[in-house]
Inverse folding.
């Protein structure tokens, strides 16, 4: 449909013998049809009768008898190379009409209209989530002689020993009270020490792990250790059991020989168990103690895939198609619409003149916004769309 504004055009048509449209001309400077929108932050305007833009209208009917009513704001004359930007609107009827008759007012009712995928196509996304658990072990808190470079070895159930001050290992299932032992060998003073902790996923029921390591007690003015103490973490109260039979947190050294093996086991109020072993201080007072920190974190990998399937026809859909200056077509029907960013509303509808092909038309006042997709899967955000357009119908 081409609507030429102004009395001069109507006069020329009359002189040429053309049938005059039975419609009052709009006031000068007040175009009948126009559309404005913001596309990816850039303001766009299409005005019929300005810069060679016109509103073309028509309708189509597919093999099922379904009508699609359309209106396009584009330039004339136009070639495939230099058509400039244009915008088009397509409205599907409520149901197929094999008889060729349709109720246009029912199909284009004032109110909200849904966006339609052409041909009833839909995209089904499938998400596959793989969960694993990463255990990180750190022996840096261990106590060694100055300038010593100890050797660290880690022992876990059903796994080969690992060496190093910091190691990590991934599990398919979350460990539940899994014992992990750090063994430390000191090269300078030939000291041996180990620490065992239970590894589990922390929870509100068991919010903190338990552990124990040995340290020395030195009285003021005394250069050598006088006792060993069990330093604990966990939920009090604790039960202590030394290899010497003592059940207190501190064990005196006055009855123990230097550099002899010793071990302590601890159980906290939650039933968490930990142990530490090593040697009593040497005659020179040297002492080493294996200690480690650990963390257990959840790792998630999400793999996605999609399948395009045919869905039953959803009547009454609308499609917005924008063609940019390069000729690239962007359509609301080429990809999914997010509910927060999509909407099409017909504010009013009224009968209008026949177009140049003798087809009946209706004039629509519309508001809209959408995600417009191209065939490469890229999209543009169209916001603040508004305008007055027309479509033809049988």
């Amino acid at each position: 449909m081409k609507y030429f504004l102004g009395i001069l055009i109507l006069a020329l048509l009359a002189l040429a013998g053309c049938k005059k449209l039975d419609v009052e001309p709009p006031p000068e400077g007040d175009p009948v049809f126009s559309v404005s929108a913001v596309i990816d932050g850039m303001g766009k305007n299409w005005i019929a009768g300005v810069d060679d833009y016109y509103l073309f209208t028509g309708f189509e009917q597919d093999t099922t008898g379904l009508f699609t009513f359309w209106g396009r704001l584009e330039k004339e004359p136009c070639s495939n190379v230099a058509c400039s930007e244009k915008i088009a609107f397509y409205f599907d009827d409520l149901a197929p009409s094999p008889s060729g008759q349709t109720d246009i007012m029912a199909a284009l009712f004032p109110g909200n209209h849904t966006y339609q995928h052409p041909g009833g196509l839909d995209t089904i996304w499938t998400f596959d989530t793989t969960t694993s658990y990463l255990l990180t072990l750190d022996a840096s808190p261990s106590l060694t002689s100055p300038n010593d470079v100890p050797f660290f070895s880690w022992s876990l159930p059903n796994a080969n020993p690992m060496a190093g001050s910091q190691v990590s290992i991934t599990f398919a299932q979350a460990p539940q009270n899994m014992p992990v032992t750090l063994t430390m060998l000191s090269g300078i003073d030939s000291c041996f020490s180990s620490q065992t902790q239970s590894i589990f996923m922390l929870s509100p029921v068991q919010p903190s792990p338990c552990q124990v390591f040995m340290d020395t007690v030195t009285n003021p003015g005394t250069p050598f250790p006088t006792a060993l103490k069990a330093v604990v973490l966990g939920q009090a109260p604790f039960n202590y059991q030394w290899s010497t039979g003592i059940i207190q947190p501190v064990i005196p050294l006055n009855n123990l020989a230097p550099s002899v093996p010793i071990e302590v086991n601890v159980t906290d109020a939650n039933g968490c168990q930990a142990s530490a072993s090593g040697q009593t201080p040497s005659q020179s007072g040297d002492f080493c103690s294996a200690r480690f920190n650990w963390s257990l974190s959840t790792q998630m990998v999400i793999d996605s895939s999609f399948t395009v399937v045919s869905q039953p026809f959803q009547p009454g859909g609308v499609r917005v198609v924008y063609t940019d200056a390069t000729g690239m077509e962007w359509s609301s029907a080429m990809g999914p619409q997010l509910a927060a960013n999509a909407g099409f509303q017909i504010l009013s509808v009224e009968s209008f003149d026949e177009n140049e092909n003798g087809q009946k038309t209706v004039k629509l006042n519309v508001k809209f916004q959408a995600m417009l997709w191209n065939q490469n899967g890229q999209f543009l955000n169209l916001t603040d769309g508004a305008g007055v357009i027309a479509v033809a119908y049988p």
Observations:
- The mean pLDDT is 84.
- The chain is about 5% helix and 50% strand.
- Helices lie at 7-15, 104-107.
- The chain has two domains: 7-117+315-393, 130-301.
